[in-house]
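Crotonase/enoyl-CoA hydratase family protein, Streptomyces kaempferi. Tokens?
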Amino acid sequence: MSSNGVRVQRVCSTLLVTIDRPQARNSVNAAVAAALAAALDELEADTELRAGVLTGAKGTFSAGTDLKAALNGESPTIPGRGFGGLAEADRTKPLIAAVEGFALGGGLELALACDLIVAAEDATFGLPDVERGPITAGGRVTRLPERVPYHLALEVLLTGEPVSGARAERLGLANRVTAPGEAVAVALGLAEQLARNAPLALAAVKNLVRAADGVPEADLFAVQRKELGILTASADAREGMTAFAERRAPRWTGK
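Tokens:
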């Protein structure tokens, strides 16, 4: 389906979400932000969907904020969800960015908001806002230093110089690097690999990783005990052990 500059397609147990405004380099306006938020709601609500892939149409991931729309008073930010309806959204299911072409400014922030990044070797990541003056608050300043070494993050943030997909892998920013045009296919394959795992366990891992950021160890173990209690009591935990004992693939229900 297509709505307000965003296409949504189900591929097996994955929701493929494509920003579809190639005439505007897949930049984000208010309509795109609302449509991305709706797609994430669909991903979260549908128990048959296990993961999502976010990409852009016709060889460009996203050039970030639609400046023309912004000058007309439109906001690409949704209260409580942040830039593009994604940057601050609370999600339990894995989301993978499949980056072809440019992921600039807010486009890079969308990629950083995802859990994994697959990039074409000729993709371009960049934060050129410092060359123009203002910067946005979609997570670049806080998330990039969490993903790559401090001095390298500052180099990208302070110079505005672009980073190729090949270098992004060397920096640890990208999980996989592909030949040009193959990012979506590889991301979908990675999503299906994740889908074979227990959905409650995936959600717990994501929650614990987020909780571990700057939290004292004693508090973190308390969070882990809570998550472990939920997992141990779940039907999926019993199914996983039963499937192992019976030497078959588990049939996850997410319960």
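The chain has a mean pLDDT of 87.
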